[in-house]
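Think of the structure tokens as a kind of shorthand, similar to the way a musician reads notation: each symbol stands for something richer, in this case the local conformation of the backbone. In the example below we present two proteins back to back. Begin with the first one, reading the sequence and then the tokens, and try to describe in your own words what changes along the chain.
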Amino acid sequence: METMITTDLNEIKQKYNEAAAHIFKRIVVCAGTGCIANGALAVHKALEKAIEDAGMQLFTEVVLDRHDCREIQITGSGCQGFCAQGPLVNILPDETMYVKVKPEDAAEIVEKSILHTEVIDRLMYVNPVTGEHNKGQLDIPFYKRQNRLVLGECGHVDPENIREYIAHSGYQAAFKAYTQMADVEICEEIIASGLRGRGGGGFPTGRKWQLTRVEQSEKKYVICNGDEGDPGAFMDRSLMEGNPHRVLEGMMIAARAIGADEAYVYVRLEYPLAVKRMRKAIEDAMDAGVLGENVFGSGQNMHIHVMEGAGAFVCGEETALMASIEGKRGMPMPKPPFPAQKGLFGKPTVINNVETLAAVPLIIRNGANWFNQYGTVGSKGTKTFALTGHVANTGLIEVPFGTTLREIVYNIGGGVTDDDGKVTGEGFKAVQIGGPSGGCLTEEDLDLPLDYDNLIAKGAMVGSGGLVVMNKQSCMVQIARFFMNFTQSESCGKCVPCREGTKQMLALLDDIIEGRATMETFELLEEVGKVVKLASLCGLGKTAPSPVLSTIVKFKDEYLEHINDKRCRTNNCKALRSISIDAEKCIGCTACARKCPVGAISGEKKQLHVIDPEVCTKCGVCFEVCKFDAVLGFN
């Protein structure tokens, strides 16, 4: 196999861009997991058929030898970020984006927006606050208020086309690292950039590389940690699906910096599309001579493998991840030794998460000073967040460190929604940031600049980037229980504090939610949480109590209401509901009594009915069948 050199990269880039400039219209259909689940592949097929039915010649990729100005290209892309509005269809160069597209819309799109330049109003994004129709990404606040550096090419490039990646200056940074920079220079550049690990810990990336570089060993490894297990988080998955070559290029540069010639991408089994696209990217890079023997004529080799994990949350921890790759049970080991000294198969190893590695080519290509212009003093660059929960614009976003929570929730996110999905303008209660390892931010934190240090000071953390917005109808005790149930189920069981402590914390939370708790329960919950945090073996165990301890600090009054008053202010805790029938609204139709599965409702026809609280299971059937809103206690 011939080795690719910079002239090959530049030639491919030039020819591709020259041919692309002659494309009449390009249709980009979002083919990330979210849009695919909503029917994007059917939309893609319908658009292809509509173009053929219109008698136009269709190409699925740029044809280098054709310069037909009427050429129509249709491609898939990775996640475009605006997940709540999918399937998404972008038409270039018109910069028109259609949302919630269905296959039956294809013919109209081709007729009006491809053959002509009309914009279809009904398929445009409508701002839920102003009612304004936005034509495309250049106009939509969700996109306009972001700085999409790492995500910049996701949603634009075809993730399965290496030539298009190269046309966007792909692998130029890797070529520079392998042929023009010494290993120590690469480490120093990454240190100067201020890049910190985006997987949760926030350790300086360049320092981690430097510690591994100076180790003396004939064999070293690089591992890309794609085991993204936080509930509601999908940043790494979207990067692997949307721009796999960027991740590979970051791994190549990391390997050059530490002296490694072999690397693993560890991806959880639940990410089949990410696995597929990463493997194809590796195969295409090998065929192109980017990976393999004698990379860029440097005399150095580079091989990358994809390893599928079984979905254990604990395998996001470095030592457990390495054990899994080695074929052992994924359980953490005490540190030291650190992976930099003794990692995979006992050799010095660098482990970075997907987002961290995807930022590396940008830094090497553009320089540390370029990267430093974004972010804060202690937190440089940008951060991706999976924005979910009670917010109008759920999806994948990227903002500079230092951006406030208010900017994210109200301007990018479009505002807080009620339980019916309507933007209320009010109703913000909290944000859970950092997933099961993170903590809560409240209304008083809306103007807090988000970075590593500020969040730690608030008892939270950046984490991998999960950001769940909650409205005032959210019970914070139940939220704490949700995350504790997750971490307890995912505990590997190796150390007693995590294995038994999380189990006891979950039981204590159940007592609070089900009305059995006393103040002793509350005090014990807090005490056990502090012990688990202090004594657990690995970082996952140490942070498992964080959602509970955080909500205890920020929402202590809700806990006390559950315990002392046996009341849940949001009425979400079933055992604490006070169910009754409104005497003024009940007409005695008997519908509730007939449907009650336990016979808890009594009363004569056309007479007031009553509920026996000793028998009632609070199932809600009576509330559902009553046509007169006479049943109280469920809303």
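Once you have a description of the first chain, move to the second and do the same.
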Amino acid sequence: FEGLDKEFEELAEGWQQVFDSNTAHTEPFPGKWADLTSFERLLVVRALRLDKVIDAVLNFVEEKLGKRFIEPPPFDLKASFSDATNLTPIIFVLSTGADPLEDLLRFATEMRMIKKLNQISLGQGQAPKATQMISTGIEKGTWVLLQNCHLMATWMTEFERIVDSFTPDKVHRDFRLWLTSMPSKAFPVSVLQNGIKMTNEPPKGLKANVKRSYLGFDDAFLEESQKPNEWKKLLFGICLFHANIQERKKFGPLGWNIAYGFSDSDLRCCITQIQLFLDEYDDIPYKVMKILCGDVNYGGRVTDDWDRRTLMSILGSYICPEMLEDNYKLSPSGIYYSPPVGKRDKYLEYLETWPLTPSPEIFGMHDNADITCAQNEILDLFTVMVSLQPRSASGGGKSREQTIQEFCEMILESIPKPWNEEEVNQKYPVVYSECMNTVVTQEVVRYNRLLRIMHANSAELIRALKGLVVMSGELEKTADAIYNNQVPSMWESKGYPSLKPLASWVVDLQKRLGFVQDWLDNGAPKSFWLSGFYFPQAFLTGVKQNFARKFVMPVDTIGYNYNMLEIDSPEEVEDRPEDGCYVYGMFSEGAKWNKQQKSLVDPKPKELYSSMPMMWFEPKQHRQQPETGIYVCPLYKILTRKGTLSTTGHSTNFVMQVEIPSSVPEEKWVNGGVAMFLALRY
């Protein structure tokens, strides 16, 4: 790739074409770079269009190995059965939303073994029964199905011993052992290696999902209600809602903060209730339906408040009076709409007109969501690939040990030593009227924990590489992480949440330490870099506390007014506000701030994240939240959005909710998964 940097500038137009293309992975490269090998092309696509790497990898595999390696084979129990013997277990690897039991019962009927099929769902106290079932099966030649092996991790060692003891002379030739399990570390490796493994993924895509629901109905079922027209309309709405919330999972945190396993039983429950309400009431009780379907049936699984808001917002688009109108648009383009009532076949015909891969518009998202989705997929793939890499360097370049040693030396030189906490406490003592002193001293204590472990760990690792001390398991893990450009787990446990690779993480840490050092040297800044705080919640509470003490008010009666400022950079700030604080360093996903319109607007194509303007958090007592004209936006530390409760009672990721002016209804941004963050992946 020598000279690529210079020629990239010279051939800017050609490269721009590749960058803008919807098929960047197959777009010809400009100049002499058109002659790159297919693997070299992969590297360029990785650098230029991360979201197209999966497509490029599929093309590469097809070219080198053939098409059959990229097309999943159809689920074929007969073929898998013929590969197995009485000594090899047949293992179903379960995935959310797919249950192979019905397929197995059908197959057992075909093979005339249904009366000889014994099944048990594993769980507490089931071990003796399962052992007895296997013994009987070996002797009499029955089929044994052990379901949910992952729920009985404690019995798996004993189970492994039982399977290893199978011998041709002891086991009846008709005996077969069928197992189902979610992916689990407890599952015995030898059983997994010797068994026939298969998986059956649930249907992917909106079209396949709704189609599967309708194939389960017949015309008699569609006519079962006393209000047949309304029933057919709302039935279509709830089936599409079910498919929508399941498919949102593919967008990662943009779809749901936490991935939920919504199942067909949730849908069946809603269908029964909707039918009941239509028959029992003269007027359709939409509000009651929404509460039962959203808050109870589906909402029972939802543990995150922001996800609950999203769920109810989506449901409101499908269970509403407008749904009864023909051709009521369910997406801006009009591809998805409420079809006229008819027989089942009419609905199936209409579903055939849907695209195979749904565009983000049906989920209420911007087209950029597809890029986010593809990037998350490839980053997961890279994580797996890195974990499978050999642990030694090959041919040319620096050795693995050299690379690790140089990095550790860089840490010792460029990362500051821990601060002297006593000196900091003397300079910034606890003062009743200034809570910021307590905030900065607490920040120093938290960052010091991280700095101590980094310095001690790096020095120890250098000594271990030189052979002066024994390389312990912990040091080995640190060395592997450094070599893979990942943050070592020992540092992560003392650090703040971050998704950055190690190189970017170190640069980010240096900036954070610079922010705290500047505060220590020159006093509290005029505006605060919110991303620079180890624990931003303490700072935000401190600002409220200052206000409460100044005006002698209870701190729990105080909220914030959120004012967007015209100031572009912290350097332009001339003085601190009288009350509250100026903050900056926030990014938005799914929407951007428009200065001219003073409102949230859709982002530009390929602009996944946008910088938010500086804001003035102004404390106010007994403040009422405006009912319209705002979007209540969650603010998180990192892009994963989910977090756990820490010992302080705060989430490890969620920081606060911020009200942002919006000229369109709030539902648009709720469905689009719009949120703000203090740090990105890079």
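Compare your description with these statements about the second chain. The CA atoms of residues 463 and 469 lie 6 Å apart.
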